[in-house]
Amino acid sequence: MKLLLSAALAALFFLVFFRLVPPEEILELFSSVSASTLALAFLLYSVSQILRSLRWSLLLGLPLRWSLLLNAANVFLNVLLPARSGELSWFYYAKRLGLSFKASLWSFLVGRLYDLAALLAVVVVFKALEKGPLLAAGALLSAAAVTAVVPLTFRMTPEKGRLKELKGFLLRELTPLRSLTLFILSFASFTVKGLGAYAVARAVYPFPLTGFFLAFFGGELSSVLPVHGFMGFGTYEAGFVLGMKLAGASYEEALKAGFLVHLYLLLSSAAWGLPAIAVLHTSARKSL
User: Fold this and answer.
1) Does the global pTM surpass 0.90?
2) Residues 146-205: pLDDT tens digits?
3) Cβ contacts of residue 128 below 8 Å, gap of 6+?
């Protein structure tokens, strides 16, 4: 049923998209992004991948080259496969890299929590930037301070069932300094990724940078839904359009920009993910 729902969501999106955007405008949409803009956007996406992988290296204790491959493969398959089935690739490839299921599970859950915290912080900081750089800096410092203090609260976690294992992992792996480092890496990763998406979106509509991150947040947040459209089509655009409407764009402008940004992210993830999958299947166990 989830697979059918994913396919139906994607089909519904394309039905609506082609009704609102004529074919000739779609061709204009693709030609509106210059080669230099695409190159810059892909460079920013690549920096984001490296920053995100540094975070996984800290959590998993893996060399950067392997955490980079693990992250790239997981991101691509998570975008590609419907019904959140791509998440399973994380555990499969982590096992190929010699990690136990418990280690990969707790690291995965902690990493996702930092993802959400950093994504929220990105939106708050860039909205605060509308009022001035001092307010934005204050918002970022406040968020960083909270993440540094959070590990001190782990001792209050009840020791029942799986919570006992999670508590042990958190107390062992997350010091205040490491927590702060993980947050900074996550925040920087989302910021750089958002700037790459912004470079592409501006080819459609001159969105203000501070308002754009609200749309970016909506699109990224759609990735945590229990079911999304095939390759994310439909659900990503819905989250993006909602954010852009709140920023004052029209439905057509927001839809075009969301579709273009989605394609950029999909192709960029494939450019990283496909080689990573090939290496993980052929070289991972030989090199460890």
Assistant:
1) no
2) 998 887 776 666 666 666 666 676 777 778 888 999 999 999 999 999 999 999 988 877
3) 135, 136, 138, 139
